[in-house]
Every structure is written in C-alpha cells, then in structure tokens.
C-alpha cells in the first residue's frame, strides 16, 4: 500500500519559547521505512521535536526535510505527515467512519470515495463494521485503533505517534504496541514514536533517540543503548542501573580489565583508558551469594517482595546497590550479611 | 495553483472591484438604493476611485492606485522573502495612507492648517468614504496579512493572520476611533478648531464636582451623586444577591427553581421598564400611593422621582445579575474546607464567618464592582425616574439633545463617566485577578455544603422572600399595566393600548400595519436579527483567536476588547455621534451605525462565553484536524463550531436580546427612518402615555421569550452519545457551564 514512505532530516534545528530554549541545535536523520523512537523524561524536548515535524510548531532556526523536501515553513495542513495524538483527539461529534474519512475529504477527495477508503482503513486495523458508532461508544483500545486508522488512510510519508499508549491500561498496552509494530512492518511506513517509557521504546523500535534537556543524549539500536550506554543518564534511563566507580587497569582492544571494590573483571573494552572510571551494573547482574574469591561483603538494608522477584537495597563498600533477585525463596531479612558478586555480562563501562 | 496565490487573487479581486467597479465616495441617497448606477462611472459623485484619481484630479487616490499596482506586481513573483516584504509594505503603507488622507482632507479641503502650509491649499475637498474605499481598505488589510503569513508568522496560517489583522482594524475603527474622537471633541469648538475653553470651563464646573451635600446641606455635584448612587446600588444588589445565592444553594427553600428563573429577567427586560413599573406603583397616581393617601389621608408625594427612586429601580434590576454571579461563588467554596473546619471543632456559625464568607470575599468584591459599573452605565431608569435630579449618563444625553446643545460638555461628562467605570473595570481585572479562592480544578470535590446557621438562615429568608415577592409584583405591574385605561384615575380594563400600538387591518388583500408601534418594532427586529449572528460570529472568532492562538500582543488584544465592554452605552452613543457625523466616515442616521454599535458593544460577551466553552475543548482536536490536511477555517467549521453549539446559542440569544433591550447608546443613534423600540417607548413615557408604553414593553418581553426558545430549537444540541446525556441548559449569563464532556 505504501511506496511513499519518506525520510526525515533535521538540520541544526533550534526552538525557543520566549527566553526558554526547548531544543538546542538538533540534527537527526531517519531512514525510510524504520520506526524510530524519541525517548526521554518529560520536558526533554521530544514532544516539541515531534510537533515541529508535524508543523504544529515552527523552529526558531534550522531546517526540516521530509522525503527530501524542505518543509520548514510549511503549515501543518500542507505537510505529508499525519499524527496519532496522546488523547487520540477523535472528533466526538462525528462517527468513527466520518473521523477516518475526515482527512481524505480535507484533501479534496470525493465523499463517496473517501468513505470507501475509510472503510478499508478500518478493516486494516480490525474495526470493520464499527463505522457508524460514535467514538464515545468504543473502548479505549478501539479508540486508539481508530486514531491510527485515521492517520494511516492518508498514506503519509511519515506517521507520528505521540505517546499513543499512555491512555491504555498496562495489560492492553503490551498488546497494542505489538499491533502497531506489526502494522508498521507489514505496511512499511516510516514512523516516529514519542514515549517516556523505556520498555515500550525497546519493544517497538528500530532505532531509539534518547533526548535530555533539548539535546540528543544518545541514539542507536535498542541493543546498543542497553549494552553500551554512553552516559550514566542513559544507563539509568534504559533499564535501571547501578552506577559504580571503578578503576580501569588495562585494555587489550577487545576487553578491558577493571577493578571494582576489591574484585577484578573482564568487560567489553569500549575504548576505555586506564584510570578511574564508572561502570553501569544492571540490578539483575548482581548475585548475593557469590563464591568467596569473587565477592565482597554487603549488608541488606531493605527488602521488598514483588511476587516473581525480590528487590533489595544492599549496603556495600561500592555504595548502596539496587539488586533484583529472582530467588524468591531466599527472601533475606534486613541486616543479613551477603557476599556480592557481578555477572560480567551485565556490566558496561561508561566512557564519560 | 498554490494556496498562497489563490488567496492573493481573491484579495486582488476585492481591491480591483473597490477601485474600479463601485463609487469610491459615499452615495448621499444610499448605496443599496442603486440610484448611483445611472451616473456611474462618469459622475463626479459616483465615479470609482481610479477615475476620481485620473479624471477628477485627486492625486491622493492616485497614490493608493500606485500602491495597489505594487501589490499586483508582487503577485507575479514567486513566493519569496521579497514578495512577502512587498505585500507587507504595500498593505501597511496603503492602510496608513488611506487613513491619513481620510482624516486630513475634509469636505472643504485640508482639515489641519499644517498640511496647507506644507502642501499648499487644495482646490477641492472630498466627501466621506464609500463602498469603493471600504473594499480597497479590506484588500490592503488582506495584503498585509497574507504577506505576514508567507513570512511564516503564526505558523504560516493565513486565515488566522488575516482574522487577527481584520479584527484589530475593525476594533480600531469602531471602538478606539470614536472614543478618541470624543476626547478630541472635548477640546474643539463648533467649527472643529482647537479650543480648550469648553473643556476647562466644564471640568471645573461646580455643578459637577461640588460636595455641598456633605458640608453645606445643598445638593452635591452630578459626578459625586452618580458615584454615591453607584456605591449604594452596588452594596444593595450585592447583599441581596448574596442572600438569594445562599437561599438557593444552602437551604431547603422549596422554590429554588423559581428563584433561578429570576436571573433571566434582567436580560429580557428593557432597562427602563422597572422604573416604569415603579411609577405605576408609587408615582403620584400609583396604586400604592393612591391607597395610602386614601386610607391615611396623606398627600401623594413625589419622593419616587429622584435618587431614591432610581436606587430602588436599580437594585431591583441588578440584584438578579449579582445573584447569578454569586451562585457560582457560593457553590465554588469547596465543601471539604467547610468539612475540615467542622472536624476542627468549629460550629456552623463559626464555620460560616471564619471559613465560608472569607472564601467568598473576592467573589463579593467582583459582584460589587459589576453592580457599580451597571449602575453607572444605567440610562433607562434615571431617564424615566430622574426628573431634574439627573445622573451622569442622562446629563450627557441632555447636554446634546436639550436646549444646551453643548458637545464639549457632553464630552467632558462622558470622560468623567468613563474614568469611573474604567477604574472599576481595572480594579476588577488587575486587583481581583488571581484572588479567587473558588475551586476551579474541574475535579469533583466530594462532600456536601453545610447548611447555614439557623439564625442566619432565618435572616436571609426574611430578606429574600419579601424582595422576591416585590419583584414579582413589579413584573406583574408591567403585564397588567397594559390592560388598564389610565392608572390611578380610571382603573377599568381595556385593550385600547394594545390596539393603539399593534392594530392592523386587511386592505386590498394585504395587511396594513396601522398600529403606532409597528414601525419601530419591525426596525428593531430587523436590526437585531442582522446584528445577532454578526455579533456571535465576531465574538466566537475572537474567542478562538484568544484561546487557541499565541500571537504577539494577545493579552493586550484581549484586554482592549474586554475593556470596551466597560464603556457605558451613553459614552459609546455620544462618541459614535461625534465620530461618524463628518468625513472620513459618515454613518449617522443609517441602520449601519446601529448594527456596528450592537456588534462591537455586545461582542465581549460572545468572547467571554466562547473563551469559557473553548477552554474545555481539548486543543489536540484542532491539531488533529490540522494534521489531517484541514485548513484552520475548515477546522473551525467542522470541528470547533459543532462542539460549541451551547456557546453559540448563548451568544446569539444574548446579542439578539441586547439589541432589542438596550437604550443608552441607541437613543443617540436612532433616526426618523430607523427608530428602535426602546427609544420609541421612552418617547411615549416622556409624553405620559404610560399605558401604551407598558403594553409595548410587555409585548417585547413576550416576543423575546418566543425568539429565545426558537433560537434554541434551531441550533439544537450537541450529539456526542447515542443517548444524549449532555445537558445543554441555557445559562442566561451567556457563560455556558458545560460539565459533561465525553
């Protein structure tokens, strides 16, 4: 259906609201047919970036290209993108079919043809036969699919999704994100997806762009971000991490030898230079009953039983560590002494 | 064709039509009569702008044609910075020059001597601007706006930029230009030359400023009397309004629905009707006066005619308004505050005095200021009841129409009145802003309001019930009064007054409207029906711009609009007369001036209602529509308007009704050809024809109720669910209080 899928290029885009700078000098490049996530905490500028792409905000300086065409000054209604809103923004006074046909009719398509295309769009998202209902008569998940259908029938070069799952309950969220990803891969359109939920981002994306305070903190595939975070911010934001100081002892080009507390570990090198550094240790990469020679002591400060795992805060000489332990039967009480060890697969050196 | 070229073509078409197809100057016999077609385009009075410039040697118009040519040239450039700058420059310079030449060249030549010394004397003056000038001005404004839009202003949205520019232009012409003219008028003598003596004489006049009533025992000056009256009226109506609000929300009073109906009354009542009814009750020939003098043998007095009478009439008129404001305030006090107070060992009495009342204070101050402004601006009641003890608003009127005929005095009095009302308005906006304690989170606050302390409850009932009965009697008088032959003298029932006002006959198969009221009645209906949709459209468009668009100077724009609402009708009336009597714009005596007056006077209410309603619509609805390829215009038409139906009804009804009931500005602007119902009724009252006046008034009230119902059926309800649970109750303050949202 979609051969018109387009690339997105931002060149030195800057956006100010009054004296507040929301975006500092942003440049990015999105390849056609990929799903790219803008991820970051609230206020990081990810939504502003999306809205500039949609034409709902105009950049203070810089250029935006969609499918190779400069759209920097083009108003929203003349851009070849469409958007799924966080609140869905379904028009409450129009039927589902009228909602989906709205964009086609706005583009000048004949009413009968627009209706027919809208029916096809609804079938595409599994809502055939719901056309005559009002949005208020659908469930949250169905409304969400109407919003997607409404955006997709326009066959935009780029589909924008602004936190599309945040109004769904946790159980539904998992299903709908799979649906969106399948639809994107089946139809092959370019999608830009904004979320603050790192798990969601890891699950759906080809690439993730993590933003912080109006700049890109790191971009890459989900795996790159998780396994090789560029900063402690990324390490902590993409999956949780304990950031622990260490000493790099040597680097043979593929592996580095580091010392944490009194233990030595071999980890992927990542161009670490000898001297003091930091590592990110994933909470599930810490064991509490390590063998004597590869362990250092700790003391349980707090424990929380969460059904399929137990979360501990452990006092150690490397600082307080957050530990996720799947062995629920162990259920250690506070003040219990433990011997801490690391699985070296869950350790990444942080370069800066 | 690109959108940017298409819209520019339209603007060019309008401008060319203005320059070539219609007469540039005002047609004395009326443009719509089309009598000008006979001598078009060669007659010197009828010629279009282009011929006026080159055939009749008006170089000032040639310059406008030249500026226009620049815009045409720009049209054939590709969209670029040069093109947009050319458009902005042509539009801006054109408008400025058009305004300048309009003001500078009057009927007989230069208006100001400085031009004569600079450019030499003019051979010929020019008449007022007409259709051609108007269309050209519109085109120039559009060039300017489209130029800005091409530069990417407001995200390149041409519709929004053009709307804002046009609105600013119109508000400048119809609000600021007249008020400015009035200020200038205060410093002018009859022939228009600068002469501060009238201003100096009037501003120092002891009959305005004297404080003798406080020290000397004589009467105070008119400014102070008006001020004291306004303070007393505001106090009275605020206290009564609070009592009504407490009874309606905090007691188990059985007729609460009936009480709330009271709030509609001031909207559908022409402002002098209360005064009229009071005369029928307490005047020298009034029912009560006659009974009392009959029983006690007291000589009937004239106490009603003066400040006392005006005060009673105003408190009766404005209590419902303050009631309406205070219902919201009393309900806005969070019940959990009161519940917290009770759990902290306070009894109901202490809770009311220490918690509830202090929380209502900002609301009370607001109601007081509204009462103050309303009293200051009131014209109908003082005119009917004032006699020789006038207030500022009536005194302004008599300064122009009476034997005094002193426009400078009228202007000075109007300025004083304006200063009073604007001070109250500023106090309301600046001092009270952000002081409200009412819960506005929109989240349901659980818990119930506590009942009033017993003694207080008895107290408010004791005030509310007699006053409500009094109001009922007063309105009863209006309905009954039309059927009584001569009040006090001959109390037999009759249809005589209705016949005189509204008789009609069938002659030669057609209806002949023989009653005396028909002429003004049809004029009123016509003008109200034309101005209501215009008012609603302009008001809601403005609300859309204020709520949905962020543009430079938005808060100033909003503030100026709201301020125009605080300008008393009398001041608007006098300033329109002063502004539109001479070139460049001459509109006195036409229907147009009445329509313009209504649109720009009543628009702020449409704005307020629209802002309230639109703030409840999720902004992402508009954005969704935009990203779905719709223009702003289509977004408004397809998405916003259908969702704003309750606000539209309110704005339509309100502007329609205000056009029928208002008197203060209208009385300056009516003419023999376009007489309005209210000014006709006031004429009847001045002639002592109370019967016909009352009959006509009650007829108006009935007609308004019928039409309000009609409007509501016509616009219909929002359909957001199959079983429509959305309440679309008509809220009379024109502030739709939609609670149900999907």
Summary of the model, kept short:
Chain A: This is ABC transporter ATP-binding protein. The complex is a heterodimer of chains A (352) and B (742). By secondary structure, chain A is of the alpha+beta class.
What multimeric state do the chains show? heterodimer
Q: Flag low-confidence runs of chain B.
A: 439-444, 721-742
Q: Major sheet of chain A, described briefly? A: 6 strands, mixed
CATH topology of the largest domain in chain B: MetI-like fold
* Portion in strands of chain B: under 5%
**Which outline of chain A best applies?**
elongated
The low-confidence runs of chain A, each spanning 5 or more residues with pLDDT under 50, are none
Spatially, the strands of the biggest sheet of chain B line up as: 1-2
Using the coordinates above, name the CATH class of the largest domain in chain B.
Mainly Alpha
Order of strands in the sheet with most strands of chain A: 6-7-8-3-9-10
- In DSSP terms (H or I, runs of 4 or more residues), the helix count of chain B works out at 33
CATH class of the largest domain in chain A: Alpha Beta
Distance between the termini of chain A: 45 Å
Would you mind describing this structure in some detail?
The complex is a heterodimer of chains A (352) and B (742). In chain A, a hairpin with a 2-residue loop joins strand 12 and strand 13. In chain A, the strands form four sheets. Chain A has a six-stranded mixed sheet, with helices on both faces. Chain A has a five-stranded antiparallel sheet with strand order 13-12-11-14-20. In chain A, strands 15-19-16-17-18 form a five-stranded antiparallel sheet, with no helix packed on it. In chain A, helix 2 packs parallel to helix 4. The model of chain A has no long low-confidence stretch (mean pLDDT 88). Chain A has eight helices and 20 strands. Chain A is α+β, with helices and mostly antiparallel strands. Chain A folds into two domains: 220 residues, P-loop containing nucleotide triphosphate hydrolases (Rossmann fold); 111 residues, RNA polymerase II/Efflux pump adaptor protein, barrel-sandwich hybrid domain (OB fold (Dihydrolipoamide Acetyltransferase, E2P)). Chain A is 24% helix and 36% strand. Chain B has three domains: 150 residues, no CATH class; 256 residues, MetI-like (MetI-like fold, Orthogonal Bundle); 195 residues, MetI-like (MetI-like fold), CATH 1.10.3720.10. Chain B is an all-alpha fold and 742 residues long. The radius of gyration of chain B is 28 Å and the shape is globular. In chain B, helix 7 crosses helix 24, helix 8 crosses helix 21 and helix 25 packs across helix 27. Chain B is 66% helix and 2% strand. In chain B, the strands form two sheets. Chain B has a two-stranded antiparallel ribbon. Chain B has a two-stranded antiparallel ribbon with strand order 3-4. In chain B, strand 3 and strand 4 form a beta hairpin. The C terminus of chain B is likely disordered. Chains A and B meet through strand 6 and helix 2 of A and helix 28 and helix 29 of B. Chain A: One of its GO terms (cellular component) is ATP-binding cassette (ABC) transporter complex. Chain A: One of its GO terms (biological process) is quaternary ammonium group transport. Chain A: This is ABC transporter ATP-binding protein. Chain A: Keywords: ATP-binding, Nucleotide-binding, Transport. Chain A: It comes from Phyllobacterium pellucidum.
